[in-house]
Design a protein that fits this description.
Layout: E1 7-11, H1 15-23, E2 28-31, H2 35-38, H3 50-62, E3 68-72, H4 82-94, E4 100-102, H5 110-118, E5 123-128, H6 134-137, H7 147-163, E6 167-171, H8 175-184, E7 189-192, E8 200-203, H9 205-208, H10 226-243
Parallel strand pairs: 1-2, 1-8, 2-3, 3-4, 4-5, 5-6, 6-7, 7-8
Helix pairs in contact: 1-3, 4-5, 5-7, 7-8
């Protein structure tokens, strides 16, 4: 699809949402470790476990017919050794029914990506702001504004492509830089906070639906405010139960 058609991608964490996303024609569904914050109540992605990722990836996979399902490799599930990376990525494919995995990190991750690809595990790369490294970054900050940082990101992208990654997420970097990186690669890029020059875009579904309100990054476009609508519905239901108007004659046998 690179150079021919823009690629759409959203996150999903459960079967029902994944089914709706798939039926809408979205090309890629990422079961992101962002579920740590959007579903599990953590303050970052770091506490998310491999078992949790497998659980949610399997649920998403059961709701999908057409979209590509990619499972995030969580923090410390691939860093210790190549053997660990192969074993755990294999579990995401075998037990989670994922089509591919996503790994964060630049050229220092190339050996792991190469090992996975050689063992039949498709890998999507992820560079720029990598949330699993947020403590090292000192917070959620745009990456690549400084010359040295931008040069490193260029090297990272080329190294991951050479290692065998089939696509790459570019997160929170200047639009001109992401465009330059996209042009330099033969594999597609998906941008999140990386401007319009990527081959496609990805958003966290809870953000774009207005369901996660703890904070909203600048790059998010809210297509709905379902959080507000849901709260109104819940309050109405609470009132109906309290005053006895639910259930009515149409709601019982």
């Amino acid at each position: 699809m690179k150079g021919k058609r823009r690629i759409s991608s959203l996150t999903a964490y459960d079967c029902t949402t994944a089914k709706l996303i798939d039926e809408a024609g979205i090309h890629i569904i990422l079961v992101g470790d962002s579920l740590g914050m959007t579903v599990l109540g953590y303050d970052s992605t770091i506490p998310v476990t491999l078992d949790q990722m497998i659980h949610h990836t399997a649920a998403v996979s059961r709701g999908v017919q057409s979209a590509m399902v990619i499972g995030d490799m969580p923090f410390l599930s691939y860093q210790a050794s190549l053997e660990q990376a192969i074993t755990n990525a294999g579990r995401l494919l075998k037990d989670g029914a994922a089509d591919a995995v996503k790994i964060e990190g630049g050229e220092f991750r190339a050996p792991a990506i190469e090992a996975l690809v050689q063992n039949g595990i498709p890998v999507m790369g992820h560079i720029g702001l990598t949330p699993q490294s947020v403590k090292a970054f000192g917070g959620y900050k745009v990456q690549g504004r400084e010359t040295e940082q931008a040069d490193q990101l260029r090297r990272d992208a080329l190294a991951l492509e050479e290692a065998g990654a089939f696509a790459m997420v570019l997160e929170c970097m200047p639009a001109d830089l992401s465009g330059e990186i996209t042009e330099s690669l033969s594999i597609p890029t998906l941008g999140i906070g990386a401007g319009p020059k990527c081959d496609g875009q990805i958003l966290v579904v809870s953000d774009m639906l207005g369901m996660f309100t703890d904070f909203t990054p600048k790059f998010v476009k809210k297509y709905a405010n379902l959080g507000e609508q849901m709260q109104k519905v819940f309050k109405r239901y609470n009132q109906d139960v309290s005053d006895g108007s639910f259930p009515g004659p149409d709601n019982w046998y």
